[in-house]
Amino acid sequence: MEVDSEASSAPIEVPELEAEVSDESVAEWLHYATVAPPGPARTATLDRLATIASDGELRDVEFTDELYGRLFALVQASWDDDEWGDRKMAYIVLTEASKAPEFDGEAAGRMLPKSWIPGLFRRLVSASRLNASDELPFVKSTVHWVYKAVLPARPQVRREIGAFVSRFLRTSIGHHGIAAALGVLGCIIQGFRTPMTSVHEGVLTQLLVPLHLPMGKLTETQPVIAVYHEPLVLCVGLFVKADARHFATAVHGLVDAWPEGTDANSPKEVLLMHELEMLVDMLDDPAAARPVLGPLRGLLIRGITSEYAMFTQRTLQLWSNKKFVAMYFAVMHDSTSHILFPMLLKGGERHWNTTVNKMRVSLLKLIREQRPDDFRRLCNSDAKISAEVAAAGADTDDDMEGLSSAEAAVLAKLEAIHPKEKDVAGDPARDVMAETPTLKPSLRFHDLAFGRTLGTGSFSTVKFAKHIVRGVSAAQWSEYAVKIISRKLIRRLGYEASVCREIAVLRTLAHPGLARLVASFRWRDGAYMVLEYGARGDLHSQITELGSLSEESTRFAVGEMIAALHAVHEKGFVYGDLKPENILLTEDGHVKLTDFGAVRPVTDAAREYIKSQRNVMRELRDGDWARPSAAAARPE
To answer: Does the predicted TM-score (pTM) go above 0.90?
Structure first.
């Protein structure tokens, strides 16, 4: 139903909002909310409509063609509003009305204006471009709802998605909204009947596979594809799940999109390797990998030999996936192991990244465990190892443990490659997960070497720092995140009590699943909180860079999070700010909760404790090197 422009220019009488819900009153309210200019009266009318829609009172009116037309016109008119609150209520009216049993999708579809679906997609792009966190979920759910409930609109929605993606592929600009469109497309693909037709398969080959090609970057660490990669992987995975033959198409698509030349060694490679693992997870028949053994082998070689440690780690991580391991040993090992073995061993040379070294050793040990005879053959046939054994004049017979000289030499090299365990007292990785924190009660400002900024807030900055230990290599210095708070600013803004509460809470928490406080002091105008550091960043960044976690990793992370939250609750507090950005990952992959500014006491004992610590800011010890006598003024 199109709005009558002549009628909309005439004076509009404000409707009576206290009237009973009836066909006439609802029609009057919808008309007024659609054509009236923004203002309190229009907002009040929209609020009345949203209320009766949410309460189910719209069931008291007859669902006629006119009502459907007015509902669509209401939402379409709201797209021109600057006021988000009015647009939100318009969305609510439509979506809540559609939940009524009397709502007829077929009849509604007949009244859908031709310009409505394109307008909805323009709104989707606009909300995505502006990162409108309030409106975007409503627009997404409306697109989903239209496709599900208004059957006549489905062809137009499919055409709009196709045209939308095609424009992006043709121009390489305007990535905004692609992720949301792919979310809808995923629902559509789930409804495809099997066996799929050539039209269905065209969605994979003409839309989804080409979406891997863009090489642009939003930042140095974020390729354009990262914006929509997660729903893209889901869409491609649905094709692989429906028919294993699509796995080969998907792999060829990854190979064609792989960064080359100056684009190589990039975060995009990490994302694509993550996608390969997700596709293997969707694959029910490992034999479907046989037609693409060559391309798969090439991708594994790229990853293992790369100097980009993040990419190498992501490649080696494939062997932590049970389905990939099963597929590898079922169809790839025999034709691939003789190529990968020397690349993994590298004659015993160590990679510059210790995590890569650990993963190399783990994979070679996995091969020995799964295929001991093959492992021995690979050791004996390695030219460099054989030359070393011959030069050493070693006996070629098996030793007492049944190992050939070559196999014993390889195992010795694996021992040399694997990072050595440090002394327990001096191992920061162990300290950070110890049952009780390693406190530094005498730590001062000049004992710290500060590095990059990890984050900023309204009245604080968090910096990376290392604890200087004279006579010890800087590589072995313990790493910390130091929160620096401006004391003058928090007093002026009235946040001193909040900071006191945060310090007090941290001093009473000691669980290894929390980023614990190891020292606190004042220096000049700053209050310094020295906290345990998550070397692998936060969970949000990890997911953004590497893609979603495996099911096994998710269970592990959730388990550690629950244990950490339980420790907070046992002390009589609630955490209050659980989100991926506040979940840190240690070098060894453990989880730590951080940022305790939202923690609140909920038991009488906890409230009394916080009350007793209200002067903690003023009692902070002096962290100036010139006044060491103050260092032990207060225990941490």
So the answer is: no
